[in-house]
Design goal:
transmembrane; elongated; G protein-coupled peptide receptor activity; transmembrane helix; 78% helix; 3 helices
């Protein structure tokens, strides 16, 4: 199926995706807990807590996308007809959508607080 020289790297990639799934699930749970605290009425009046709530939502979406991507890779990896690096047309479209939305949510969680800070504090 794969060359003998590539098997250690492929096994490492396969096993590290399990770790990524576990860490992503932990991240989603912790972000849900943070978000549930940040939406309390007393905290919704402060811009800092609103920033943190938006970052928490973006992290939840980004980690969900990461879990979906890793699980689909784990499932495809065990398929005997899967050729690493080559996808069908719809597989390529799916990978592009995953890349777009992952980058989108990472950008929002990085740049949203900076943009709002400039608007609120005129920096």
């Amino acid at each position: 199926m794969y060359s003998e020289a590539a098997l250690p790297y492929l096994n490492f990639d396969y096993n590290s995706r399990f770790l990524t799934v576990v860490l992503s699930i932990f991240g989603i749970i912790s972000n849900i807990l943070h978000f549930s605290i940040l939406i309390k009425k007393s905290l919704r009046t402060s811009p800092v807590f609103i920033f943190m709530a938006v970052i928490s939502i973006c992290d939840i979406f980004q980690l969900s996308i990461q879990i979906f991507n890793d699980i689909s890779h784990l499932i495809n990896f065990k398929n005997p007809h899967f050729c690493l690096g080559y996808y069908t047309y719809w597989g390529t479209v799916l990978q592009l959508l995953i890349l777009f939305f992952s980058s989108f949510f990472i950008s929002i969680s990085n740049w949203f607080p900076k943009c709002i800070q400039k608007k609120l504090f005129h920096i």
